[in-house]
């Protein structure tokens, strides 16, 4: 195994008090993905040999989230029962790598800085391997004053130490170069130096940053400058929104470069897990693509549609204001405006679903149409069947859910109710306004309408009577 495949520690035990949240800070989402998961993903893409997450606050919840996304046990967990500082956090992770040799490189990341590129992890690893001091770190120049650790150098530029903001003098606070909070260090130095940390500082914590002064004695740690947007950490919800904005900007830029048109990238919301998106996909403003959504070539998604965990095949058109969830959409299907496909909907090629049509656990087969006002739940609708306006599947009797089967070519007249379980046979007709309670044999007509009666002259007589009453003097009724 290559020596360059690092061990990665992710510090994520902190309380995140400033988020003012029930949810652990590192599980707050950036573009739909928990921030900690961004960091784990970057570590994996960088080829980490192992990833150890250091957890404390609500660690069961955080572990469950990691297991759900990455597979049970695939991220190792080290517990830091009390948060006594970043140095202490890393001490808590050492037992997890007890069997690893001293020359192995450990990359230490923080769980609340999700936008670090995987290339940085490789850069840090390489810089550490090349450094006689066996240590490298990322530095950054923040765009506005931040309470970050300051990098203190000697006259030759060698890194002497990091002074935490809380411990810094006025003069030190003027230093522009700050500690971004990402490190690579050989395990041997880490083991030896962590044991020497003391909590003799403003916060009374064990500072991981004190390892830089230890490395100075070996010739000085290497620093690599990184843009602030990439290393920015999240402490409160203002930071969260700023990082979200940057994440979305990057995601959108990558998809545009891959052949997706966005009328207004600033109002196009694409989650991290979304993809692939095909060539010539066209996205109108205020479209949100969420979860594990994928979209084929030439698909158009019009204004205001929210699409979550949906697979859309090539050349389908989703018209404005449609909400689609856990659904598959076939080639050339036309959906919307104002269509609601709920989980378990399967829409095959050339299907049309129009305004105010709701589907749930329903399979619309090729060429079937429901163009206006319908509820189709727990149903299967055969190829080229036509569902009239106002059709409702009565799938629920307050206890159970039942299926409606509409076979190929059937025609359901407007304002019909299909009381499930029920089947409408192939090519059958259901007359408008029918309440279907019994199976309809193939090729027949079902109709339950009360026969129409025409009372001749009734309306004329009615109006005459009304007119007479109006002309009577007051008081006489
Ligand atoms: C840290 C650095 C500072 C750097 C800044 C960049 C130290 C002492 N200081 O400061 O030089 O400029 O990051 O953002 O490291 N954590 C634990 N256990 C703990 C304490 C912290 O797991 O006991 C985790 C936190 O959850 C967080 C990370 O470590 O993910 C950083 O901790 P935080 O308290 O935010 O450190 P800063 O004060 O921001
Ligand atoms: Ca922080």
Question: Could you give a short description of this structure?
Answer:
The protein is α/β, with parallel strands linked by helices and 477 residues long. It has ten helices and 36 strands. It is elongated.
Any key phrases for this structure?
single chain; 477 residues; alpha/beta; seven-stranded mixed β-sheet; 36 strands; elongated; binds uridine-diphosphate-N-acetylglucosamine
What is the percentage of strand-forming residues?
Answer: 25-35%
Estimate the global geometry from the Cα principal axes. elongated
Bound molecule types:
uridine-diphosphate-N-acetylglucosamine, calcium ion
Number of distinct helices: 10
N- to C-terminal distance: 104 Å
Q: In angstroms, what is the radius of gyration? A: 32 Å
Please give a structural write-up.
It is a single chain. The strands form four sheets. This protein has a 25-stranded parallel β-sheet that branches. It has a seven-stranded mixed β-sheet with strand order 5-4-1-6-10-7-11, sandwiched between helices. The protein contains ten helices and 36 strands. With 477 residues, the chain is an alpha/beta fold. Uridine-diphosphate-N-acetylglucosamine (UD1) is lined by residues 11-14, 54, 80, 83-86, 88-89, 110-112, 148-149, 162, 164, 178-181, 207-209, 233.
């Amino acid at each position: 195994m290559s020596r360059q495949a690092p061990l990665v520690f992710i510090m994520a035990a902190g309380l995140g008090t400033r988020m003012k949240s029930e949810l652990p800070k590192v599980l707050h989402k950036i573009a739909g993905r928990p921030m900690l998961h961004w960091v784990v993903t970057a570590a994996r893409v960088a080829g980490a040999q192992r990833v150890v997450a250091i957890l404390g606050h609500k660690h069961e919840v955080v572990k469950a989230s990691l297991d759900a996304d990455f597979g049970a046990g695939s991220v190792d967990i080290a517990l830091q029962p009390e948060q006594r500082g970043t140095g202490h956090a890393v001490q808590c992770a050492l037992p997890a790598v007890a069997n690893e040799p001293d020359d192995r490189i450990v990359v230490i990341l923080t769980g609340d800085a999700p936008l670090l590129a995987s290339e940085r992890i490789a850069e840090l690893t390489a810089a550490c391997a090349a450094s006689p001091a066996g240590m490298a770190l990322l530095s950054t120049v923040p765009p506005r004053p931040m309470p970050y650790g300051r990098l203190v150098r000697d006259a030759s530029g060698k890194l002497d130490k990091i002074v935490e903001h809380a411990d810094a003098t006025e003069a030190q606070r003027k230093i522009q170069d700050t500690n971004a909070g990402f490190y690579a260090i050989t395990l041997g130095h880490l083991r030896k130096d962590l044991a020497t940390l003391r909590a003799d500082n403003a916060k009374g914590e064990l500072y991981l940053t004190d390892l830089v002064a230890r490395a100075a004695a070996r010739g000085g740690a290497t620093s690599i400058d990184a843009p602030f947007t990439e290393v920015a950490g999240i402490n409160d919800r203002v930071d969260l929104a700023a990082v979200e904005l940057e994440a979305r900007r990057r995601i959108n830029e990558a998809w545009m470069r891959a052949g997706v048109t966005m009328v207004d990238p600033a109002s196009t919301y694409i989650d991290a897990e979304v993809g692939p998106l095909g060539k010539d996909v066209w996205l109108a403003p205020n479209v949100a693509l969420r979860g594990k959504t994928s979209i084929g070539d030439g698909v158009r998604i019009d204004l205001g549609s929210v699409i979550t965990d949906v697979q859309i095949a090539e050349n389908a058109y989703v018209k404005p204001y449609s909400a689609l969830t856990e659904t598959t959409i076939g080639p050339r299907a036309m959906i919307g405006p104002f269509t609601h496909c709920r989980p378990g909907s399967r829409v095959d090629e050339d299907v049309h679903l129009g305004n105010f049509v709701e589907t749930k656990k329903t399979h619309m087969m090729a060429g079937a149409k429901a163009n206006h006002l319908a509820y189709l739940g727990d149903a299967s609708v055969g190829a080229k069947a036509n569902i009239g306006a106002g059709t409702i599947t009565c799938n629920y009797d307050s206890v159970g859910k039942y299926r409606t089967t509409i076979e190929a070519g059937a025609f359901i007249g407007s304002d019909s109710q299909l009381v499930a379980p029920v089947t409408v046979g192939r090519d059958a007709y259901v007359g408008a306004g029918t309440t279907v309670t019994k199976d309809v044999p193939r090729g027949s007509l079902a109709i339950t309408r009360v026969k129409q009666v025409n009372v001749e002259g009734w309306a004329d007589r009615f109006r005459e009577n009304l007119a007479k009453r109006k002309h009577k003097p007051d008081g006489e009724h």
